[in-house]
Design a protein that fits this description.
The chain is mostly helical and about 230 residues long. Helix content is about 65%, strand content about 5%. It has 9 helices and 2 strands; from the N terminus they run H-H-H-E-E-H-H-H-H-H-H. Strand 1 and strand 2 (about 75-80) form a beta hairpin.
């Protein structure tokens, strides 16, 4: 039996220093500011973030549990690298999850469809000023949200994080942005018309193209390492 002094709930801020550090570090990884294979310097990172090393270590261990950081005994923490086989495996899972999300989203109400229409309109407008696909207008995330399955959403987020890390070294290819928008528009058209199999087919082809591009970028990065 615990003493009564422990029966009251602990008051704490809405987000701890380690929680904030996780978000900042994750964004730095995805944005390519921390590159695959790079060793994390705790002293410099703690100073840059304005926190002590304790919360920073908690954040690093959190990212390790998410598969974004590798802990090496007696050497420290490193941003995880991905092999060609691992990247293929991640895309296989992504395709399976997102095509299933399409089927679930088909029974969603008109509000979700309207959100996708507005998102694609905003994306087309953004591409008129910047040829890079706007990350904040995430068609795939919105589509998966429409599935109404929190477990599916969580699984997709985890896979996306690892894929973003695997691709972060080479960044995003602006030349693909318009083609991606066209694919997204086709998927939505099929979804609205109730052509679920067609929507899944376009989505699969779209993600396979994304994988092919990611593999080229990954292999180029490997060749750069070998020649440096």
């Amino acid at each position: 039996m615990y003493p009564k002094s422990l029966s009251r709930r602990i008051e704490r801020p809405s987000q701890t220093f380690s929680g904030q550090a996780v978000e900042v570090l994750r964004e730095m990884v995805v944005a390519g500011k921390l590159l695959p294979g790079e060793r994390l310097n705790e002293v410099e990172l703690a100073a840059a973030l304005g926190i002590s090393r304790g919360p920073l270590r908690e954040a690093i261990h959190r990212l390790s549990s998410e598969g974004l950081v590798s802990m090496v005994a007696n050497r420290g923490a490193f941003i995880r690298t991905f092999s060609v086989e691992e990247l293929r495996g991640l895309y296989e899972v992504r395709i399976a999850l997102e095509t299933h999300a399409v089927r679930l989203a088909a029974s969603n109400d008109a509000e979700g469809v309207e959100r996708l229409h507005k998102l694609l309109d905003a994306t087309e407008h953004a591409l008129d000023f910047d040829p890079t696909y706007p990350r904040q207008l995430d068609f795939h995330k919105t589509l998966v949200d429409m599935s109404g399955s929190p477990i599916l959403v969580e699984a997709v987020i985890e896979v996306h994080r690892k894929i973003d890390l695997a691709r972060s070294r080479s960044g995003h290819d602006p030349a693909r942005a318009r083609r991606a928008l066209e694919d997204h528009e086709q998927i939505l058209q099929h979804l609205v018309a109730g052509r679920i199999a067609s929507a899944q087919k376009v989505l699969t082809k779209h993600l396979q193209s994304s994988l092919d591009n990611a593999l080229k970028l990954l292999e180029c990065g490997m060749h750069d390492d070998e020649s440096s």
